[in-house]
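From the shared-data thread, chain only:
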Amino acid sequence: MLLTAIIIFVGCAVVKPSFQTRAETEPQVLIAQQDSLLIAEKDNPKLISALILAHVHLGEIAYNNQSYTKAIDFYQNALKLDARSKPALYGISMSKGHLLYKKGSSAALWDAIEQFGKSAVYLPEKGEPHYWMAKAYEKKDDGDFELIIEAYNVALSKELPDDLIKKATESRAEIQKAKTTFESFWK
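Structure, as tokens:
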């Protein structure tokens, strides 16, 4: 009987993961419990940090699935907990940039470039905003060679996922080739 009680006690102590772990492994569950957790522990900085992480994590999943409106909702929920959360601010501006980029009009592309520029300020080590600025410049006016090439160069000089490194390198080479062809034609 005593042995059973000890096993149950030890088992219960081991089963309860930290807020941080739950934010990483089961963010939906943590967010579902957010209101009751905040009532019980509203001044717990580890809880607040974990909730922000959970919202940002779910925002990143939605962003990676190109569900930009859904991603914005998650990021905005993170900002309700910390209005200065750089990952949430970054995610919102990147998501808005993609929504504008998809519209494709000249005005929307300029607004997309502005949103990607904001992202670059929030997390300056990231190259993805510069990659998408280059794509927006290219979509807007593929004859502005210097601006497009410079944006690709900046993107490649920063942290960039492997798939975007390859795409940026290929796109930069295509633009460089078009620039050379254009300059040769006018000589």
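The chain has two domains: 1-83, 85-187.
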